[in-house]
Specification:
Helix content: over 70%
Largest sheet: none
Structural class: mainly alpha
Number of helices: 15
CATH class of the largest domain: Mainly Alpha
Shape: globular
Order of helices and strands: HHHHHHHHHHHHHHH
Strand content: under 5%
CATH topology of the largest domain: ABC transporter involved in vitamin B12 uptake, BtuC
Distance between the termini: 76 Å
Length: 322
């Protein structure tokens, strides 16, 4: 226990690690909050598609500017994510293709295009200096203070917007028809929520990468769903689980050598999911098993009591005949 505490104190004493830790926690918080609505709307694959769609935007931004500025990368990724979002909506509305199929098409096409551009860049004169390959799996250690400040501002804005529009997003998630009936701009809210997911994905790409960002969006939300039936509590728990995942991932990657922060954060989120599946009070497998055993014991006791009453009744009738 003392070793863990000493390691945590050492972790918080390093300025560079403090930045990475703050960025990872804020990323987990905003991803968990937004992921709750994506999960409830059965759009878990949307985060994956948007994360993969951001890769060609990053590559095109680098090819146009020749700069490794995270600001230009964010602009390119947001533009590509928005194009992917509108493309998914257009295909779904104007064809018989369902949304899950449209998501799969966009994911594969955009990611394939991004890999082609990435390969082209790597074979160019500046390819070895670009570092774009780190956007595939993320590299939280490369974040500097300006990146963390940007991430903090964007993540805080995402969380505030979600809480400000909580009622609207709640209606959109559970009953879009009713929301439309009372005059809410359902189409705008739907696209706006997709835009927020795009922003969350883009912010997290540097730390987690395009491949794993979708896991950080959905896994905390699924874990939180096991613990409560109320949406407000679920959103808070999801943000908390995401933050804890970022904290654990940063702590483990700092104390161990050559271990990446992003994948470790995803593994930490997966561990919380496994704990939720097993030990959640009402939905957990252990709780259900204990409930079944309790019901089984009650039934057996009831049967034994009925049998005992039957024996006593039979004995009474035998005495009466004598």
């Amino acid at each position: 226990m003392n070793g863990i505490w000493d390691g945590l104190i050492e972790l918080l004493s390093d300025p560079n690690t403090q930045w990475i830790l703050l960025g990872s926690i804020l990323l987990g918080l905003s991803s968990g909050v937004l992921g709750s609505f994506a999960y409830l709307r059965k759009q878990s694959l949307m985060g994956d598609a948007l994360a993969h769609a951001a890769l060609p935007g990053v590559c095109i931004a680098f090819m146009l500017t020749g700069s490794k500025s995270i600001f230009y990368f964010l602009i390119g990724a947001v533009a590509a994510g928005l194009i992917a979002t509108f493309g998914i909506g257009y295909v779904t509305r104007n064809s018989r293709i369902k949304q899950d199929t449209a998501l799969g098409i966009v994911l594969s096409v955009f990611f394939g295009f991004g890999i082609v551009l990435l390969t082209q860049i790597q074979h160019s004169d500046s390819g070895n200096q670009s570092g774009l390959d780190k956007f595939l799996f993320g590299q939280a250690a490369s974040m500097v203070l300006s990146d963390v400040i940007t991430m903090a501002i964007v993540a805080s804005a995402l969380v505030l917007v979600c809480f400000a529009l909580f009622k609207e997003f709640k209606l959109l998630s559970f009953d879009a028809g009713f929301a439309k009936g009372i005059g809410l701009p359902v189409a705008f809210l739907d696209q706006f929520l997709m835009f927020l997911i795009v922003v969350a994905v883009v912010v997290g790409i540097q730390a987690v990468g395009v491949v794993l960002m979708s896991a950080l969006l959905i896994t905390p939300a699924v874990s939180a769903r096991y613990w409560t039936e109320r949406l407000g509590v679920m959103v808070v728990l999801s943000g908390f689980f995401g933050s804890i995942s970022g904290l654990i991932g940063t702590f483990v990657s700092t104390t161990a050598n050559n271990l990446p922060t992003g994948p470790l954060s995803v593994l930490a989120a997966t561990l919380l999911f496994v704990i939720s599946v097993l030990f959640a009070p009402r939905r957990g497998l252990v709780s259900k098993l204990l409930l079944r055993l309790s019901v089984k014991r009650s039934v057996m006791k009831e049967q034994e009591l009925q049998e005992a009453k039957a024996v006593v009744s039979s004995a009474g009738r035998s005495v009466g005949h004598e």
